[in-house]
Amino acid sequence: MIPYGRQSVDDSDVEAVVAALRSDWLTTGPRVDAFEAELAAVAGAPCAAVSNGTAALHTAYAAARVGPGDEVVTTPMTFVATASTAAMLGATVVFADVEEDTANLDPAAASAATTARTRAITAVDYAGHPAEYDDLRKVADSAGAVLIADAAHAIGSAYRGRPVGSLADLTTFSFFPTKNLTTGEGGAVATADPALMARVRRFRTVGIERRELRYPDEGGWHQEVPEFGLNYRLPDVLCALGSSQLRRLAAFKARRAALSARYDELLAGVPGLRLPARRAWADPLRHLYPVRVLGGRRREVYDRLRAAGIGVQVNYIPAYWHPVFADLGYRRGMCPVAEAFYAEQLSLPLYADLTDAEQDRVVAELRRILS
C-alpha cells in the first residue's frame, strides 16, 4: 500500500534520538530549549513545544483566555480538534464558510460570523497553503478578537514573504508522522507576545509558576499554581528528533514541491478532476495534495484506488457533521462551500520519500479509473 502520507526518518534522526537516550535528560532538559530555539527561527516567533497538535490548540485557546460565554469563529474544513479544544474550554464554536478555491477560512464569512462575544478567530492553513492573514487580521482587530492560526499543515510555508508562525497572535503546529516534519507525536505554539507566551508555557506545564509567586519566601523548592494547566510537555527524546528533522526541512520542502509540480503536470487536463489551487503570494510547504473528483464519483474513486493499493484519504469531514457537534444543535448545510468541497475532496499520496515511480503508479491508476 502506498500511504497518503508518512514520516521520513534517516540515520541522522536515529542518531539524534539515541544520543538523547544516552544523556542525563530524557525530559525537561536542554534539547527542549534547543528545539524551541531552532523552531522559532523557522516560525518567525518564539515557540513552546507541546505534546501534540491538539495540545497546541488547547494551550493556545487557554492562553487567549477563551472560556464560557465566548465565541470562537473557525472553519469546518479541518480536523475536529481545531473546534473541539475551544468547546472543551466552554466556548461556543461558530463555523464560517471557506474560500471556494483554497478551502481556507473566508475572511468575509468570518467577519459576518463575529459578534460582541467573539473572543478568537481561528484560521487553518489547509494542505499547507496559508490563509488570507492580512484580511483576517482586519476582521480580528475589528472584532477585538485574538487571531489564531492552526498551522498544523504549514510549518515551512510562507505568506507574502513572511513565515507562518509570525502572522497571527498565536500559531499552532503539529508534528504527527504524516506532517511536514515529525517528532513522533508533538506540536508547538508560537507567539511574539511575551504575555501570551508566559501563559502558554505555564499552561503546558500543569500551571506551575516559579517566578511570579504569591508567597516568595517559602524556600528554593517553592512553586505555585495560580491557574490550572495540563502536562503537555514534549520530552527531550522527541525534541532531539525534531531538531534533526528541522535540519532536513528544506529538503522536505523541495521534494514535496517537486512532487506537487509533477502531479500538476501529469494530471493536467484529466477529465473529471480539479487540481489544487495556489495563489501567487503563497509559498506553501504542501502537507496534502488535495484534488477534487467531480461528477459525484469521489466515493467510487476512493474505493477503487484503495483496492489498488493506493492509500488515498479524505480531509476532512466538516467538523460540525461529527455527532458531538450535531448533538449540540449544529446542522448540515451551514457552510455550503465547505460541504461542496468535502463532497469532492481526495488527498493523493504526498510525502518526502514518495518515489517518482510510485507517483507514476498513482497517476496511472487515477487516469485509468477516470477515463
TrEMBL record:
Listed cofactors: pyridoxal 5'-phosphate
Any GO molecular function: transaminase activity
GO aspect biological process, one term: polysaccharide biosynthetic process
This protein's UniProt keywords: Pyridoxal phosphate
Chain positions found as N6-(pyridoxal phosphate)lysine: K179
Gene3D superfamilies: Aspartate Aminotransferase, domain 1, Type I PLP-dependent aspartate aminotransferase-like (Major domain)
InterPro entries: DegT/StrS_aminotransferase, PyrdxlP-dep_Trfase, PyrdxlP-dep_Trfase_major, PyrdxlP-dep_Trfase_small
Active site residues per record: K179
PANTHER family: DTDP-4-AMINO-4,6-DIDEOXYGALACTOSE TRANSAMINASE, TRANSAMINASE
Family: Belongs to the DegT/DnrJ/EryC1 family.
Name assigned to this protein: UDP-4-amino-4,6-dideoxy-N-acetyl-beta-L-altrosami ne transaminase
Organism of this sequence: Spirilliplanes yamanashiensis
